[in-house]
Amino acid sequence: MSWTDERVETLKKMWADGQSASQIAKELGGVTRNAVIGKVHRLGLSNRVGNGAERAEPEEEVVAAPPRVEPAAPAEPPRPAPEPRVAAERPAPAPAAPAPAVHAAPIPMRKAIIPAGQPLPPQPSANEISPEALASVREVEKHAKRLTLMELTERTCKWPIGDPATEDFWFCGLPSLAGKPYCEAHVGVAFQPMSARRDRRR
DNA sequence: CCCTGATTCGC
DNA sequence: GCGAATCAGG
């Protein structure tokens, strides 16, 4: 593959969007992330730092991109722990908590966090989670890697834990199942069988 | 170990 | 110009 104008354009656009080199490479196809990085440098689009234009605050924008069509859309977390640690009223001193809505806040905060135009995918909600499954999840969450939003990858569990409005919030981060947004434990509670038969024999 | 971008250097 | 190998980091 060669760097046609079109491909370069895609590269520029994606790079400007803050996409990683590997993501760009995957999108373009036929090139490795090294090639992308090499091209980026040759084009002089290094980092948006040091350039003529000052970019004090890049501002991570993790909002779902409208034009982009992801094969396996990362299903947004449906509804994590039934009762994490409801913050009755937290001062929320959060100085700069650019936590883009990753999912509707499971916690009844003052105001609901609206997911940016993200059409919530079909979510087989199930309020009833078997006690054992819940216990399992609890156990797993003890080992959670406590990743931040930016640390999530396609291979990390994106299950949110805690209160998004406070420091007491993180993502599970454990290895996610292939193609799934969550780890084994969280997939278990996220994707329940439709019928809410709470006592399924096992 | 997963990932990130940065740099080098033979082609 | 290209990009694999390598480097340096999180």
Automatic annotation (TrEMBL):
Segments for region (Disordered): 46-101
Signal peptide location: none
Regions of compositional bias (Pro residues) in chain numbering: 74-83
Composition bias, Low complexity: 63-73
Pfam families, A to Z: GcrA
Superkingdom: Bacteria
Protein name: GcrA cell cycle regulator
